Amino acid sequence: MSTYLFDPPPVAALAVRGLAQRFPVKRLFFVGRNYAAHAAEMGFTVDKSRETPFYFTKSLSTLVPSGATLPYPPGTRNFHYEVELVVALHQGGFEVTPEQAPALIYGYGVGLDMTRRDLQQAARELGRPWDLGKDVEHGAVCSELLPLPGQVLAPSAIGLQVNGQTRQQASTEQLIWSIPELIADLSRFYHLQPGDLIYTGTPEGVGPVQPGDQLRGWVEGVGEVAVAIGPVDGPQV
């Protein structure tokens, strides 16, 4: 007799460049408004001297690999892309300092934070959580990981194309909070664990996609992520 009433989900994992072993993923953390120009296009300014980073999470089941076709999700008419540098952790930590943070790093990937922007903005205006806008099925895409244990990635170009046209183009040097600062700050609120992924924020130029669109994102020296947008999955609002 089975221990479970139904089959448990398989372990979520990402490919690792140059290795047969895969990286098991535990949690998905996302940083909001970590590029000043993106914050501005969303109608906000960020004062690092007075503010701290803020975060949201996505369900592990939303994680999909590069190369997938993403169904256009139900309940939206404004489905957006956001390309991001992803930091993968292979050590846990709690209340670590920025100086200690690099020891937690396993490597890096290129991610897409797919967003039902109309639902996110409606929730924001009502003071409600962003879950319907952000925790979208198939809404957390990630490339294979580049192992760089213990290393803080040097400033790198980041960008995204839709159907071959560049929509986002910036540098990770423009991150408001650096990779060590993010890890240290997040560890004030969570006991970070091996397998945690941190999507570090998106630059300006976010925008909508339509069924049939082809997306390609990149971080220089790390890799690329690519997806296609499939047909509408259910009713739009």
Automatic annotation (TrEMBL):
<keyword id="KW-0479">Metal-binding</keyword>
<protein>
    <submittedName>
        <fullName>2-keto-4-pentenoate hydratase/2-oxohepta-3-ene-1,7-dioic acid hydratase</fullName>
    </submittedName>
</protein>
<dbReference type="GO" id="GO:0018773">
    <property type="term" value="F:acetylpyruvate hydrolase activity"/>
</dbReference>
<dbReference type="GO" id="GO:0046872">
    <property type="term" value="F:metal ion binding"/>
</dbReference>
<dbReference type="InterPro" id="IPR036663">
    <property type="entry name" value="Fumarylacetoacetase_C_sf"/>
</dbReference>
<dbReference type="InterPro" id="IPR011234">
    <property type="entry name" value="Fumarylacetoacetase-like_C"/>
</dbReference>
<feature type="domain" description="Fumarylacetoacetase-like C-terminal">
    <location>
        <begin position="29"/>
        <end position="226"/>
    </location>
</feature>
<dbReference type="Pfam" id="PF01557">
    <property type="entry name" value="FAA_hydrolase"/>
</dbReference>
